[in-house]
Amino acid sequence: MEQKSMTALISAFSRAYHSVQNTDKIFDDYLAKDILTENEYEQISSNMSKGINFFNPLFDGTQKEALHWIVDNQLSPTPLGRSAFTEKALENAVRGGAKQYVIFAAGYDTFAYRQPDWASTIQIFELDHPTTASDKQKRIQSILSEKPANLHYVSVDFTESNWESNLISCLEFDQSQISFCSLLGINYYLSKRTFAETLNTISCIVPKGSVIIFDYPDEDSYTTKAGERTKKQVALAGGANEKMLASYSYLDLKNLLADSKFLVYEHLTPNEITEQFFKKYNKLNPEHPITAFDNVNYCLAVKN
């Protein structure tokens, strides 16, 4: 994608809004608000609240309430849930010996800039398209005086078959060290073939015990069986020129991973995600409950 990714900006907005609006947080991305300009934040807020009839034709309330409803129901469940799942799993992996964190299509991810103490022992690699990467770096420079010493930017285009050569040529990347690879929000936009090739490539450059974590759309995602929110999301992404392509049954996915020597270690369906990551928040915020997104599952697999 040549232009700034609109879906990446909206994902950052949803994390920012949740962090600013709530005292009890599912996931606290306290830097997300600073990454967006005041104008972008206001503009996305305004555009979203004006779209309430699309998201919820029966809604009755103010524009401010409409925005809150849209963020909690449509925009933030997946970015919040998958970030909480990933960073908790990353901490476990680091305690278990992982030395490298590779963030695929990093977008406006802020982990490297709010890294907790336990992350100081790892090398972090942000992989992204040059356009998105340089836009993100400009934004970060306006809020932080210096780049964390253990962070490395790697410019890649995942549609090119040799993207891994840029990562391998990064001096700090060590193919013999256990890596934790996150591919959040990517699967929707890759064909099954490209995803299979990506898994295979990752498997070739990381050792046994390395982890891959991602969210993915289930096999009903683009059918009439899809949940209402999913149908809206597919329409939105298409409107932003970021068409959603593939979907998977659990068996599809398990086989695809096995072909690249990965074994499913943890797999969460929407109900399990809500139970694990949103239950406490919902108890404290009964008037604004958040449930995991329809048709979106999370998967953590380990190279065997």
Automatic annotation (TrEMBL):
GO molecular function: methyltransferase activity
Functional note: Exhibits S-adenosyl-L-methionine-dependent methyltransferase activity.
Keyword Transferase part of the UniProt annotation: yes
EC number assigned by the record: 2.1.1.-
Statement: the UniProt record of this protein carries the keyword Transferase: yes
Enzyme class: transferase
Highest taxon above the source species: Bacteria
Sequence similarity: Belongs to the UPF0677 family.
Protein name: S-adenosyl-L-methionine-dependent methyltransferase
Lineage: Bacteria, Bacillati, Bacillota, Clostridia, Eubacteriales
Pfam families given in the database record: LCM
Keywords: Methyltransferase, S-adenosyl-L-methionine, Transferase
GO term, biological process aspect, one: methylation
